[in-house]
Structures are given as C-alpha cells and as structure tokens.
Write a structure and sequence with these properties.
This protein folds into two domains: about 60 residues, Helicase, Ruva Protein, domain 3; about 200 residues, Rossmann fold. The protein is about 40% helix and about 20% strand. It is built from twelve helices and nine strands. It is elongated and about 65 Å long. The site of S-adenosylmethionine has 21 residues, from α7 and α10.
C-alpha cells in the first residue's frame, strides 16, 4: 500500500479516538518505520510501504490508539537537544523540566547531585554541558538507574557520573555545589484527573508521593542541607500550584534567595534556593 494512504487512514483513526495532533504523531511514527527524518517523509510518501513496514506502522498506530505516547512507542525522547532512551520504568521526560537546566547553566557547578534521576536527563545533560564537572545521580528505582546509566554511556559522561540507589538523600554521601530534582509532586486527589497517556504509562512512583504531593520537598529541603556547600544551590521542579507551599518549606528549612521561575507557558515550574554562605 502507498505510504500516503496508510498515513491518511491512521490519522483518521487517531482523530476519531480524540487524540490531539494526530498528524504530528502519524508523521513521527511513519518516519520511524521508514527510518527517515520526519522532514523527508513528503519525499517518500508516494512510494509503497513493504508488508513489514505496513505491519510495523499498524502496530505503532494500535499502541497510540491505546494512548501510549509516541516517545514510549519509539523508546526515546529528545531533551535539551539530545536523545534519551526511556522504558516503562522511567518518567517520559517533559519539556518543562528543561527550565531546571536553563537555570542551572547560569552558574557552573563542579559537583552536582540529581535526586530522582529517572532516565538521567538532568544529570547527563548538565555533565554534557559542563565537561569538567562530576555528578551523582540517585533514584529509589534500580531499574531507572539502569536506564540512566545507558543514557550516560551514549552521551559520553559515564566516567564522571556515579549512580546511587537511595531513598532521597538517605544513602548519599559527600558535598555538592548544586542539587537538582524533579521529584514526584502530583497530589493523591489529582491522580484521577490525569490523562490516559500519563496515568497508564508513567510509573506511579514517578508521578505522585501521595497525599498533598509535597512530601518529597519536605524530605529534600531538610536533608539537602547536609550535602550542600555554603552558597550551594538547590533547584527543584514543582507543580504549577505549589510555588507558595514549596517556598514556605524551603524558608522554614533555612534556605535563602528563594525564587520561583516560570516555564514557557508562564506557569510556576521551578523553585531555586541557596544555602547561606
Ligand atoms: C518525576 S520523576 C523525574 C525523573 C527525571 N528526573 C525527569 O525529570 O525526567 C521522579 C523520579 O523520582 C524517583 N523517586 C520517587 N520516589 C523516590 C524516593 N523516595 N527517593 C528517590 N527517588 C525517588 C522516581 O523513581 C522517578 O524516577
């Protein structure tokens, strides 16, 4: 069958299932099946897909109809211009998390800690941007750490990155001049409102700590103090309605220069704080 016809049919199926941006998803999946860059699809769209290619494309579309995000179908996600492998064990990294990278890069850090590293996007990206820095990436999930280690290898930073399985800072030793974290922050009562793309496929442990969604901030604020050098920075991602609560938690824990930053949609997304000098 001609590729263009397959794509038109698939787009109609996704649209009928109320999937947003069906055209974008179909192009990405078709490009992956043909192993061509998405921008070259038009050039090849009048050629026939082989039976194997058509079957693969069908399989991808059936997964998308079950609400599996395109990045999960393909097994990778772009973050800060680099490709990261993802699996069922890690959060599918979000563009909003790049707000942490943007802020962190304003001041180089020699030694950094990424708490709840997941696929490793934060630790790996910062090490790739800072060729002389060292980092520790930690997570409570060993399966997540295995994916982060693969991504560190691919991006050539494994020699400078140590992995640690830890419940937040419990097993962490040493001092850092930067601690970053995108912890689970969705409140228990917000979970039922999440879209199927999220609730079915992101690991629950990556989404929510239960109750009011603030437990990780309390633990991190309290324990990061023992591992931050004087003047060291703490940068965390937050949910859009959590800025005031997280600022209060950080103030009560003795941090200074506490500020909130917005993402590209002008929603509060990140809190920064410093250890007193
Ligand atoms: C929102 S995900 C963030 C993953 C990655 N940093 C990112 O931005 O894509 C939160 C991560 O925290 C980890 N996590 C959850 N509870 C934890 C705990 N008690 N201690 C350490 N890590 C935890 C999860 O396994 C998950 O990888």
């Amino acid at each position: 069958m001609i590729l263009r016809e397959l794509m038109i049919q698939a787009q109609a199926q996704l649209r009928a299932a109320n999937i947003e941006n069906p055209g974008r998803d179909v192009r990405k999946l078709a490009a992956a099946v043909l192993a061509v860059p998405a921008e070259r699809l038009t050039l090849v769209s009048d050629s026939a897909a082989s039976p194997e290619q058509a079957a693969q494309f069908d399989f991808y579309i059936s997964q998308r109809l079950a609400r599996k995000p395109v990045a999960r179908i393909l097994g990778h996600r772009e973050f800060w211009g680099r490709q990261f492998e993802i699996s069922a064990d890690v959060l599918d990294p979000r563009g909003d998390t790049e707000t942490i990278v943007l802020e962190a890069l304003k001041m180089p850090a020699k030694r950094l800690l990424d708490l709840g590293t997941g696929s490793g996007v934060l630790a790996v990206t910062l090490l790739a941007e800072w060729p002389d820095s060292q980092a520790v990436a930690s997570d409570i999930s060993n399966a997540a750490l295995a994916i982060a280690a693969k991504n560190a290898d691919v991006h050539g930073v494994s020699g400078r990155l140590e992995f640690c399985c830890s419940d937040w800072l419990e097993a962490i030793s040493g001092q850092f001049d930067l601690i970053v974290s995108n912890p689970p922050y969705i409140a228990q009562d917000e979970l039922p409102g999440l879209s199927a793309d999220v609730i079915r496929y992101d690991p629950k442990i990556a989404l929510s700590p239960g109750k009011d969604g603030l437990a990780a901030y309390r633990t991190i604020a309290q324990n990061a103090k023992d591992h931050l050098l004087p003047g060291g920075r703490l940068i965390v991602e937050i949910g859009a309605s959590q800025a005031a609560d997280v600022k209060t938690i950080f103030t009560q824990s003795g941090y200074q220069e506490i500020a909130s930053l917005q993402d590209l949609n002008e929603r509060d997304r990140v809190i920064t704080a410093r250890m007193p000098e």
